[in-house]
Specification:
By secondary structure, this protein is mostly helical. The chain has a single domain, classed as Cytochrome Bc1 Complex, Chain D, domain 2. Helix content is 49%, strand content 0%. Helix 2 packs across helix 5 and helix 4 packs across helix 5.
Length: 107
């Protein structure tokens, strides 16, 4: 590899790590999921409803994390109850919501 190619690759990797893009890893988190749970714009919805409207503080979802279809259930609620658009299956937002809802399970 030539010196300028190494510099280009190193620059790209540094940029990816600093911005959270590329190979920097997944940024989905419980914290992001908790914020999205109370976000009235989730899925592009145009009303004031949030996940927390029907499930304040996650009530009623304590066992939902064990459901193998939880991702589809989240999308169904976003489309039906919130009037938004379903989130892509492996999106950061959907993964964060999954993590948050799974964190509600009482041990």
């Amino acid at each position: 590899m030539h010196k300028h190619q190494i510099v280009t690759v190193a620059t790209f990797l540094c940029f990816a790590i600093m911005t959270g893009n590329g190979w920097a890893g997944d940024k989905a988190s419980v914290e992001m999921g908790k914020k999205l749970f109370s976000d009235p714009t989730l899925g592009g919805a145009g009303n004031a409803k949030t996940c927390a409207t029907c499930h304040p503080d996650g009530k009623g979802l304590e066992q939902a994390g064990m459901n193998e279809n939880l991702g589809e259930m989240i999308s169904s609620c976003i489309v039906g109850a919130l009037g938004g658009e379903a989130l892509e299956a492996k999106s950061e937002k959907r993964e964060s919501l999954l993590l948050y809802i799974k964190s509600l399970e009482k041990k």
